[in-house]
């Protein structure tokens, strides 16, 4: 020590400087020095100067050391001494800390949170060591949050085999005041890196060695019925070239493989046509509708593939397999194209026939349809269970059938009861099919689900293999649930053979007795046994069942449950896999952290779990490991996405094949959506593209080494319509720019699901269809039927909605009525008729649209009965219907009845004349104006607005074709003509501040425009601003936009005007008022422009809107532009009519963005324009935009920063 | 580090800002390489590596200049703080502009870690923005200039007298701006950009 100091003292005059700046190397003064330093630091800020131990090796200074090595040795020693001194100081000052890190010596690598200095402080205080320089001998743990890829790859040479741990290890250890095991804190990058490698190798090796293809073709997505489709079909040239017999050999072999990959598919070979025809078919038939309820099956049957008796199919299949076993290698021959999407034109329609997974997956829909009233029942009871949870008297029964799939099949074979039996789709002697379920005698032999028949038979030679019997499964499952619902009305179905019952309410009964009664009845009814677990929560009940099996029941008493020792004991040894919600992936992840039992899991902090596995999963793990489960019986997890994916046998020749396949896929997805009773808004198309260097995959017709590409888009209205799906899919597919020959897998997934009240949907369809039908029937003279409820003022926005809807329909836009309609008064949205006062007299009015050439004569007569549209009439409220009926002398009722019986086959095309419609509205408005005294009720206005909003919303969102201006004209007309009449009334009704009504008087509302042929108001001052304010933001913005340019300046006068109003319902944000509504393109989430661009004619703009969804931080234009650059855009530049318009709107977008960002974030603007500049070299479109907006940019930069932006 | 807790949030913000400016200005000076690298040493600030001047005069100049700004920043008077590099003719060659916006009405507790996160990105970006800057002529000179929204009232306080009004030469033409970093984390907004004379600037 003294040597050190004397040496440094000797090192010359520079040394004084050195010690001035850096930590003193003089140990004698160490304590006083460090104190001084600390006081210095306070003025300078925390780390500013704190403990920077590395003195720079100034080049001008002659080193006293012979070489670098000796210098470092010296330095390290000094650092160590220094650390010791500091440590002794700090531990002296704080006696409460115990040296938990004794023997631990950390080295901090790179940026960490908390910083290395803080970690050093912990080490100081808790008896550990901190190394500034890595040394294999002194360091025990490496702390880091992040490692570069090179270090990960070379982890050994980097770490020298030492543990690489996250800094939270130190923090958590300090928090619990003892040294925790570092294993759970191992760096994620490492933890996740190792296992993936190992799994990669094992999965590669096993198929090679065993000749087994385990590639998962079938993915079951989380919470979805997303099963894969597969198809197999053959290329023509193969059959021509190959010899039939040999070829047949191969085919069988391939079938076998196919069945490997997916235990639930069956192969049908069309025996006659296969070998002679140019295009031969081998169909993998799977049908998704298998378990849909009878009604929908009835509906689907005619449209989709004809049903074939499954027994014959399977037997045929077995025959095929028993023909021969061919060596594995033949399947890997050079001609691989024989099974593909190419040959089979109907392949998607033949699917999922005998899929067990699909049976389970779709079973829930079926169940829900059987017990539709349940969700409501749960709702009211949930609150009750919250209360009862406090009293800790909840009793949950978990009931599970014993080896369901086997016992159902063997119940008719009593002789098999004691024999080992397994269920498998095929009893092929080759034995490479997978066992799906085995009974208990078989399990005793070690036979498990997922095992190959061959292996199982090796374990138990007399194993009986039986095929599925889906009818029986359905039947038993139904019986099972009937019994459960008989005993208890709070049933949560987990699967077709497993359910939770909440029997808390059944206080009189002992849950144990109840469980035995249920089990007894199940056995009597179905001949199958069930096991039950009873406990206080779902988790414990589930675990109890586990111990109860087979055919028993287990009761974990509340006392036991809540005395933690008992539960802990029980859980401690429980393997993680037993916990519900922990699947392979999670288990694997935990295994990598050396967590195998609940007891081990409990050692990990909640925060750490949540950090590693996500908030919810982390919490779930933490709770479950402690036997805590807060789930309520009856909370059914909704599926988050529905989709279908095919990754096997995809080979396309040309675009046409692809389109055909996509159509089939869309049909399938649409069916699944309808099956689940949901509609989706976001559509993701996934494509597996063969990597350039990848050859034919080792697995026959498999996808091989692929790049996964995906594009997604979100539409404003949820849909399940095939045509919409198809359109979207086509569009999405267009984004990929891949060679169709390289495609190896296609998947379509629908997310952002919204549930559809199916009955409503049906109603809507009916009315739409009948409307279409009647419209086409009277194509020459169309009737617009409106019902006017005219009390004082009848305000009617009739048929517009419907007509818009129809229009959209005619243009292949699926439309759906808004699910939430204001006050629900527009009758579920499908009537299109708004009625203000049901008691008022209705006037039926027709407008002959064929002479819609500007003639606005009022026709107030009853139209002929045949001209009435039944769709509208039917959806009228019953009072109106009866009134109408009176007018027609009772004939209407018959007609309605008749129309209801009519089929749904006709689809007419309708053209739409918005101006005419608006004229109708004008007339009505006029009329209402003439009739005095006028007072528009509040509801009338609101309903009007809501009904306006709807078609407009639909217009702007759905249809790029409709000339949007017409709608806006129309709205303004309404605003102009209808609302003013009721103005005073609205004031009273709507305004909470009574005296602010004076503000309205300034808005002179002119009715002159009545005579004006131009439907657009000449000035916005004519528009009642109070109405404008009621409109939703987007609509308002659109409205202003649609104003002709020369009128636009008048908007600005509107701004301050509005400010004076103090309207309680003012929706406007202050910013948008300030800027005179110019910044409206960036308002909203997603911003307005996205929707605008999405419906644009120009591909470029649509593409750009799509980029919005692709980019991660979408509120920044720069990230969207970045995305645009990243995506290849080649053919977008085609000039078209809308070119100038598109340039203009893009320009507009940029201008507004500049305005938005120039003051606060010039960097963003700068980045955007640099990106634009780059884009402009690629695309003429962007060049034009760039040149157009650049002067504007410079002007605003100059205004705000007094300079010009320098864009290199 | 332990700032007084009784400070108002605004004063707190100003304190952080001043501290940050000191570090950032030092980094700028280091970046421009006016002094030899040996005049600086590596330190850690906000958990990133930064430079600190070793020469006491240099350090004091920067420190006193920015800490002298503190009262003005607290009042919201300071619009920009510039680090200006001059050639031998005292004509600016390059200016580093810190444009400050402190929301005066902001009065709630500031989340220091958020601010730190944003400010850290400045320091990181600054350390890699060498290519954006111009090579300085030799024998150049630099100074710290602050642009005020209005001229402060002259007071006899010790703090304020450090700052004097300046007649630094300005460019005739609007300069070329190259943004380096912007951040806007309520209530503090800082933008850093470079200014260079425009090509049309008359050469003297």
Structure write-up:
With about 1200 residues, chain A is of the alpha/beta class. Chain A has 49 helices and 22 strands. In chain A, the strands form 6 sheets. In chain A, strands 12-13-8-14-15 form a 5-stranded mixed sheet. In chain A, helix 35 (about 915-930) packs parallel to helix 37 (about 965-980) and helix 48 (about 1160-1180) packs antiparallel against helix 49. Helices cover about 30% and strands about 30% of the residues of chain B. In chain B, the strands form 2 sheets. Chain B has a 5-stranded antiparallel sheet with strand order 5-3-4-7-6, covered by helices on one side. Chain B has a two-stranded antiparallel ribbon with strand order 1-2. Chain B is globular, with a radius of gyration of 17 Å. Strand 22 of chain A pairs parallel with strand 6 (about 175-185) of chain B, so a sheet runs across the interface.
Summarize the structure.
Helix content of chain A is 48%, strand content 10%. By secondary structure, chain A is α/β, with parallel strands linked by helices.
């Amino acid at each position: 020590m003294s040597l050190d100091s004397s040496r440094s003292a000797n090192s010359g005059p520079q040394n004084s400087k050195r010690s001035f700046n850096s930590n003193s190397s003089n140990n004698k003064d160490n304590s006083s020095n460090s104190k001084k330093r600390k006081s210095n630091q306070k003025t300078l800020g925390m780390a500013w100067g704190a403990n920077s131990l590395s003195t720079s090796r100034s080049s001008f200074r002659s080193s006293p050391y012979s070489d670098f090595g000796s210098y470092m040795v010296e330095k390290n020693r000094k650092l160590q001494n220094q650390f010791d001194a500091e440590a002794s100081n700090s531990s002296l000052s704080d006696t409460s800390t115990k040296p938990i890190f004794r023997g631990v010596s950390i080295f901090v690598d790179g940026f960490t949170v908390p910083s290395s200095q803080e970690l050093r402080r912990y080490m100081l205080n808790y008896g550990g060591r901190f190394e500034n320089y890595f040394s294999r001998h002194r360091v025990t743990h490496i702390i880091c949050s992040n490692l570069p890829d090179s270090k990960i790859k070379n982890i050994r040479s980097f770490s020298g085999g030492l543990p690489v741990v996250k800094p939270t290890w130190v923090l958590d250890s300090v928090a619990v005041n003892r040294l925790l095991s570092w294993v759970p804190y191992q760096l994620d990058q490492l933890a996740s890196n190792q296992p993936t490698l190992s799994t990669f190798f094992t999965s590669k090796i096993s198929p090679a060695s065993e000749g087994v293809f385990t590639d998962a073709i079938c993915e079951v997505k989380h919470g979805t019925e997303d099963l894969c489709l597969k198809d197999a079909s053959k290329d023509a040239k193969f059959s021509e070239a190959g010899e039939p017999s040999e070829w047949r050999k191969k085919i069988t072999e391939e079938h076998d493989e196919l069945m490997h990959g997916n235990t639930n598919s069956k192969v049908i070979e069309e025996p006659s046509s296969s070998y002679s025809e140019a295009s031969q078919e081998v169909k993998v038939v799977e049908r998704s509708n298998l378990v849909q309820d009878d009604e929908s099956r009835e509906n689907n049957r005619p449209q989709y593939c004809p049903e074939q008796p499954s027994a014959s199919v399977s037997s045929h299949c077995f025959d095929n397999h028993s023909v021969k076993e061919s060596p594995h290698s033949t399947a890997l021959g050079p001609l691989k194209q024989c099974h593909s999407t190419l040959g089979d034109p109907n392949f998607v329609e033949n699917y999922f026939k005998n899929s067990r997974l699909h049976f389970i997956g779709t079973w829930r829909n079926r169940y829900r349809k059987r017990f539709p009233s349940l969700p409501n029942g749960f709702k009211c009871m949930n609150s009750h269970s919250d209360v009862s949870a406090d009293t800790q008297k909840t009793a949950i029964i978990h009931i599970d059938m014993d080896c369901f799939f086997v016992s159902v099949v063997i119940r008719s074979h009593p002789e098999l009861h004691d024999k080992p039996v397994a269920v498998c789709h095929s009893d092929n002697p080759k034995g490479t099919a997978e066992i799906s379920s085995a009974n208990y005698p078989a399990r005793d032999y070690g036979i498990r689900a997922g095992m190959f028949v061959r292996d199982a038979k090796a374990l138990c030679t007399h194993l009986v293999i039986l095929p599925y019997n889906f009818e029986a499964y359905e039947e038993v499952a139904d019986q099972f649930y009937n019994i459960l619902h008989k005993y208890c009305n709070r049933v949560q179905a987990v699967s077709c053979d497993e359910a939770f019952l909440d029997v808390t309410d059944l206080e009189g009964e002992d849950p144990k007795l109840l469980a035995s009664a249920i089990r007894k009845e199940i056995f009597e009814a179905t001949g199958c046994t069930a096991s039950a677990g009873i406990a206080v929560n779902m988790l414990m009940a589930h675990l109890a069942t586990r111990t109860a099996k087979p055919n028993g029941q287990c009761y974990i008493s509340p006392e036991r449950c809540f005395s933690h020792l008992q539960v802990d004991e029980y859980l401690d040894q429980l393997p993680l896999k037993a916990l519900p919600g922990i699947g392979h992936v999670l288990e694997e992840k935990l295994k990598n952290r050396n967590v195998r039992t609940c007891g081990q899991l409990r050692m990990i902090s909640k925060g750490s779990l949540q950090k590693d596995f996500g908030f919810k999963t982390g919490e779930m793990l933490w709770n479950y490991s402690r036997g805590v489960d807060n789930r309520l019986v009856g909370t059914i997890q909704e599926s988050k996405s529905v989709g279908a994916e095919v990754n096997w046998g995809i080979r396309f020749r040309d675009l046409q094949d692809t389109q055909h396949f996509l159509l089939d896929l869309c049909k399938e997805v649409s069916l699944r959506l309808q099956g689940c009773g949901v509609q989706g808004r976001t559509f993701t198309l996934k494509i597996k593209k063969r990597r350039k260097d990848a050859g034919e995959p080792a697995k026959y017709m498999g996808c091989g080494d692929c790049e996964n590409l995906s594009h997604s888009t979100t539409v404003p209205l949820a849909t399940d319509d095939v045509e919409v799906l198809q359109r979207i899919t086509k569009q999405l597919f267009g984004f990929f720019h891949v060679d169709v020959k390289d495609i190896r897998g296609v998947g379509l997934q629908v997310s952002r699901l919204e549930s559809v009240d199916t009955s409503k949907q049906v109603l809507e369809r009916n009315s739409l269809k009948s409307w279409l039908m009647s419209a086409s029937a009277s194509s020459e003279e169309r009737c617009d039927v409106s019902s006017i409820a005219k009390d004082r003022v009848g305000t009617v926005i009739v048929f517009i909605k419907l007509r818009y809807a129809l229009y959209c329909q005619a243009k292949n836009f699926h439309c759906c009525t808004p699910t939430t309609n204001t006050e629900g008064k527009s009758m579920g949205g499908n009537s299109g008729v708004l009625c203000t006062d049901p008691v008022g007299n209705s006037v039926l009015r027709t407008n002959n649209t064929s002479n819609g050439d500007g003639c606005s004569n009022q026709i107030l007569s009853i139209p002929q009965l045949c001209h009435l549209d039944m769709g509208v009439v039917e959806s009228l409220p019953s009072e109106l219907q009866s009134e109408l009926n009176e007018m027609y002398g009772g004939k209407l009722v018959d007609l309605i009845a008749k129309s209801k019986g009519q089929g749904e086959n006709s689809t007419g095309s309708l053209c739409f004349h918005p101006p005419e419609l608006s004229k109708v509205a004008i007339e009505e408005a006029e009329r209402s104006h003439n009739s005095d005294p006028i007072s528009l009720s509040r509801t009338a206005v609101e309903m009007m607005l809501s009904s306006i909003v709807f078609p407009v919303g639909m217009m702007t969102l759905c249809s790029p074709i409709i000339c949007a201006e017409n709608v806006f004209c129309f709205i303004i007309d309404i605003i102009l003509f209808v609302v003013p009449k009721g103005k005073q009334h609205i004031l009273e009704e709507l305004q909470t501040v009574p005296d602010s009504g004076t503000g309205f008087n300034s808005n002179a509302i002119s009715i002159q425009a009545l005579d004006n042929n131009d439907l657009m108001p000449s000035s916005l001052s004519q528009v009642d601003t109070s109405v404008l304010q009621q409109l939703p933001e987007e609509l308002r913005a659109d409205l202003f936009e649609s104003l002709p340019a020369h009128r636009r300046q008048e908007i600005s006068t509107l701004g301050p005007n509005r400010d004076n109003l103090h309207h309680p319902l003012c929706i406007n944000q202050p910013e948008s008022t300030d800027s005179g509504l110019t910044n409206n393109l960036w308002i909203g989430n997603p911003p307005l422009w996205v929707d605008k661009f999405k419906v644009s004619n120009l591909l470029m703009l649509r593409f750009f809107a799509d980029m919005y969804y692709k980019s991660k931080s979408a509120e920044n234009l720069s990230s969207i532009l970045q995305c645009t650059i990243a995506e290849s855009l080649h053919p977008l530049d085609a000039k078209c009519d809308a070119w100038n318009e598109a340039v203009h709107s893009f320009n507009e977008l940029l201008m507004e963005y500049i305005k938005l960002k120039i003051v606060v974030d010039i960097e963003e603007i700068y980045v955007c324009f640099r990106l634009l500049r780059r884009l402009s070299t690629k695309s003429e479109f962007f060049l034009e935009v760039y040149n157009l907006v650049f002067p504007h940019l410079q002007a605003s930069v100059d205004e705000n920063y007094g300079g010009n932006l320098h864009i290199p | 580090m332990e700032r007084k807790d009784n400070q108002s949030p605004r004063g707190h913000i100003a304190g952080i800002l001043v501290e940050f400016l000191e570090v950032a200005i030092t980094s700028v000076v280091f970046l421009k390489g006016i002094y030899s690298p040996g005049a600086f040493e590596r330190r850690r600030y906000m958990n990133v590596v930064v430079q600190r001047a070793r020469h006491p005069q240099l350090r004091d100049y920067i420190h006193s200049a920015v800490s002298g700004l503190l009262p003005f920043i607290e009042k919201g008077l300071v619009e920009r703080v510039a680090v200006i590099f001059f050639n031998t003719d005292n004509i600016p060659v390059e200016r580093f502009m810190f444009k400050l916006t402190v929301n005066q009405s902001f009065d709630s507790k500031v989340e220091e870690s958020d601010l730190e996160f944003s400010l850290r990105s400045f320091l990181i970006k600054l350390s890699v923005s060498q290519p954006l800057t111009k090579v300085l002529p030799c024998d150049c000179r630099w100074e710290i200039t602050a642009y005020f929204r209005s001229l402060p009232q002259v007071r006899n306080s010790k703090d304020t007298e450090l700052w004097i009004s300046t007649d630094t030469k300005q460019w005739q033409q609007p300069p070329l701006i190259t943004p380096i970093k912007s951040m806007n984390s309520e209530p503090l907004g800082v933008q850093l950009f470079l200014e260079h004379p425009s090509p049309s600037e008359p050469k003297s």
